Amino acid sequence: MPRKQWRRSARQFRSKQVWWVRLLFWSGAVLIGVVATLLAVASEYASSLVLHVARTWPLAPLVLTPAGLIVIAWLTRRFFPAAEGSGIPQAMAMLEVSDEARRKEILGLGTGLFKGLMIVVGIACGASIGREGPTVHIATAISYSLSRIGRFDRYLRRRRLILAGAAAGLSAAFNTPLAGVVFAIEEMSRSFEARTSGIVLIAVIVAGMTALSLQGSYSYFGTVNVPVEPIDTIGAVLICGSVGGLFGGLFSTLLIQGGSSLDGLRRSHPYAFAAGCGLLLAGIGLLSEGATYGTGYEQAKLALSHGEGGDPYTPVLKLLATLVSYLSGIPGGIFAPSLSAGATLGVELAPFLGSVPVAVVALLTMAGYFSGVVQAPVTSMVIIMEMTDDQHLLLPLMATVLLAQWVSRHVCPRPIYLALADSFLKGEGKQRNRRAERS
Amino acid sequence: MRTELIRLTFLGAVSGLASGVVVLAFRWLIETAQVGFLPGGILGNYEGLPRWAILVLPVSGGLVLGLIFERLPQHLRAVGIVHVIQQLRHTGRPDLPLGNAVVQFFAGSFAIICGQSVDREGPGVHLGAAAGTQVGRRVEDAETFTLTAGGAAAAIAAAFNTPLAGVVFVIEVLGVRYRVDRFIPIITASVTGAIVSRAAYGATPSFVIGSDLSMGSLHELWLLALLGFVIGLLAVVFTSLTERTGALTREWRPSLAFTSAGLMTGLIGQVYPQILGISYDTLDGILDAHLAGGILGGLMLGKLVATSVAIGLRVPGGLIGPSLVIGGALGGLLGSYVQDLGLDTGSESFYATIGMIAMMSALLRAPLAAMMALLEMTARPSIIFPGMTAVVCADLAARQMLGRESVFEHLRRLTRADD
């Protein structure tokens, strides 16, 4: 056994400095677990609130949504411009930049806190947004702020703290420990670094333990246990994979292209733009009889457990609502709404697939759509496996995800979070130049 | 570029298919032989052999195998996962010659049939990777690397019906760098391998995981963390024992080395005959909590010594299966003690399953692959969190003492000094 290794370990074990940093890191992870739980509870409450409002007064969103979006857009622009959007591209962009002051601003605790509040308000106003991106943003803000208190070495500060925070945030948000890790590694850093995984795993465990002890054990979508022979699902795999991948890819392309082409308009008339988006959202909500408001968790769960999907247009409307919400520039993620759009799309595909149970088609299409949107095959497989308690569908699920990934690349050549991170960096640069010109 | 991706994905499926078929043939050979001569025609039933046979079989088998090995030229003797790692990591284009694979096929199956305490997964990875190389050589020479990695992933996927774990194994253990483009063919290969094995052996190809896998209360996480630390220490003992044996016996002729490994196995087998061969039948017993708690401790130590010595003596087999048995036995032991306390706790199977995964993770230094395997084998998301706790603690303990290198890296250094 290598003596040198022993001696180094013993020295680390006795060092107060090392223990202080460790303790700090663990408390940060606990905090991430607490915040993720709070955000989960608050946003699901907001989501059920808006559904209730829309059911009682169907026309209320026509006023509520535009007004809410204007307020959120104003607050965001006035106080924390870095808080807009999903949060995952921001965290990814911060892995790349070398400017420490900028990182401090975007991954500031204030930005994170504000974003958490705004997401709840946004959902309550009827925007179709998810909480996972914001949770990731807050979590990275927390983990990054630790580096100002304790003395982490430079490499740790730059990449590993951000990745660990992101993984812990996503894991605690959905109670999907493994998916958080894989997401941070596959999608965010786009490379598996063996050195990263130790600290990432510890952050995930501590945050997850906190979230579990606050919320108890659950699986996000419950059990989808429909006995089906994998061989019978071949047709479903082909259709769900290609249709799901196609729609997912379309969504991504529209989001990326729309974001860059409407950027000028959004910057010149921010409030009118927010109001327009709000009206559009309310209109879509009316058309769908309220099904597009909120995170979409309820709809996805219904589709997966009972095979209920509502109107045939619901999935497309949900896709559009999510798109509009994102483009409006308010804080909010696309993860959970995408799961919902995919699951309801599956319910619509089920009649064409005769003998295959609706819940299975919904599950496969959700996987396909999600994989089409984020284009990270391993993450998509793991997250769906962890969200649903299912025994029979491993192989069909993987085949669907692969097919969807492949189809989606034809529609959307660049993975969405990567593209958004790039455009975020570019947009930031522009704003900075403008500010510099003015002063 | 897009048409190339389609073509490569298709080739990935072909190499996964080739790998799956070769691995199944390898397994079929071992099982047919075992059914042929073991008492009652039961797979892995070395326990039913008379005492003298338990000693004579591995010793004479080792001697014969060693004598054959001595007749082989030096370059054909390089087999197993270490060989694959060497080729994938240290020579830009992998070269896994057909000759070595043939040697691995027959030598590996012979060693296991004779009761050496090694597994079929290590040889399987070599055979699968070699199948991938052959596909690459014949069709698309520039992509041989990807197809070789795909073949290796498919071998793991076929062994345990765990396609994702196969993919992550390639990243963590074989050291292939992740890139989305390259990995679509590899994932395809892995899924194909799993489909092939499923068609032949059903959803539980190697062993059956127990059905009662829920955790009693969150306080058990502390117990699982403890289990993880102990397993990490066991992995350290295993690695050091392997390394020491390897260093001490570097100059030994194969006949002497393999016979000594057989002697060691035979002697331990006098007390614990379950350790002979792959021991997946024993693992089944541990996972359903059929084996009594008392025997598990001895079984674990016996398997640990027999396998680490055999691997150190360069017996052409793998150590993944034994690591599962060792970890499973320790987990089962802890589980049975906890059960006796009469608290609201998880079952023995729960502890055994997690112990098994943690040991594999600590020995191969592959926490993510281990957790993927856990998710895919149990298909119960609720076990991931407790499993992750044990895996991370095991990994930390092993890292504190051994650094970041897996047992294969330690072995590779020994063989390189050989050249």
Total of domains of chain A: 2
Biggest interface goes to:
A-B, 53 and 52 residues
CATH class placement of the largest domain in chain A: Mainly Alpha
What is the CATH class designation of the largest domain in chain B?
A: Mainly Alpha
Tell me roughly what share of residues is in helical segments of chain A. over 70%
Description:
The complex is a heterodimer of chains A (439) and B (419). Chain A has 20 helices and no strands. Chain A has two domains: 200 residues, Clc chloride channel, CATH 1.10.3080; 196 residues, Clc chloride channel. With 439 residues, chain A is an all-alpha fold. By secondary structure, chain B is mainly alpha-helical. Chain B is built from 17 helices and no strands. The model of chain B has no long low-confidence stretch (mean pLDDT 87). The interface between A and B is large, with 53 and 52 residues.
How is the secondary structure organized here?
The complex is a heterodimer of chains A (439) and B (419).
Chain A lengths: L2 H12 L1 H41 L4 H19 L8 H9 L3 H7 L2 H16 L7 H18 L4 H21 L2 H12 L5 H22 L18 H28 L1 H6 L1 H18 L9 H10 L7 H14 L7 H15 L8 H17 L2 H11 L6 H18 L4 H23 L1
Helix pairs in contact in A: 2-6, 2-7, 2-8, 2-10, 3-6, 3-13, 4-8, 4-20, 6-7, 7-8, 8-9, 8-10, 9-10, 9-18, 11-15, 11-16, 11-17, 11-19, 11-20, 13-15, 14-16, 14-17, 15-16, 16-17, 17-18, 17-19, 18-19
Chain B lengths: L1 H36 L13 H21 L8 H11 L7 H16 L7 H19 L4 H17 L2 H10 L7 H22 L18 H29 L5 H18 L8 H8 L5 H20 L7 H22 L6 H17 L2 H12 L5 H19 L4 H12 L1
Helix pairs in contact in B: 1-4, 1-5, 1-6, 1-8, 2-10, 3-5, 3-17, 4-5, 5-6, 6-7, 6-8, 7-8, 7-15, 9-12, 9-14, 9-16, 9-17, 10-12, 11-13, 12-13, 13-14, 14-15, 14-16, 15-16
Can you give me a brief rundown of this structure?
Chain A has 439 residues and is mostly helical. Chain A has 20 helices and no strands. Chain B is mainly alpha-helical.
